[in-house]
Structure formats: structure tokens, C-alpha cells
Design goal:
The protein is an all-alpha fold and 73 residues long. The chain has helices spanning 6-42, 44-72. 0% of the residues are buried.
């Protein structure tokens, strides 16, 4: 009969908890991928409009940042 030391048992429990957490994380990430794919498929036009607006805002902010950076020097 093999004896399991408390230290070794604690490592097994920690490893088991980490594995469970990794498995749950992987499942949730798969759920997110499926939800995003469903969103893109059902709301493609809306998503494109949102991305276009975000792109426009980002472009304006980038131009402003560049202008302020150029005027500093």
C-alpha cells in the first residue's frame, strides 16, 4: 500500500483544479467563438457599420495624435 504525503496530495489537488479551470476556460472560449460567429452571420450589416464607425473615429484620433506630435517638435 502506497502512502500519499499531504504535500503530494496538495499538488495533486492543485493540478486537478488547474486542469478543471483550463477545461472550463477552453469550453467558454469555444462558446464565445460560436456566439460571435452567430452574431456575424445574423447581423453582418450592422457589424460592418459599427466597424466602419470605429474605423472613422480611430482615423480621426490618429490624425489628431500625429498633428499634436508634429507640433511638439
Amino acid at each position: 500500500m502506497a502512502l500519499v504525503t499531504p504535500r503530494y496530495h496538495r499538488k495533486l489537488v492543485e493540478s486537478s483544479e488547474k486542469l478543471t479551470h483550463k477545461h472550463l476556460t477552453a469550453e467558454r472560449m469555444q462558446d464565445i467563438r460560436l456566439l460571435l460567429q452567430n452574431l456575424v452571420n445574423s447581423e453582418e450589416a450592422t457589424l460592418k457599420l459599427v466597424l466602419d464607425c470605429l474605423y472613422d473615429i480611430g482615423a480621426v484620433n490618429l490624425i489628431s495624435l500625429i498633428k499634436s506630435f508634429v507640433f511638439v517638435f
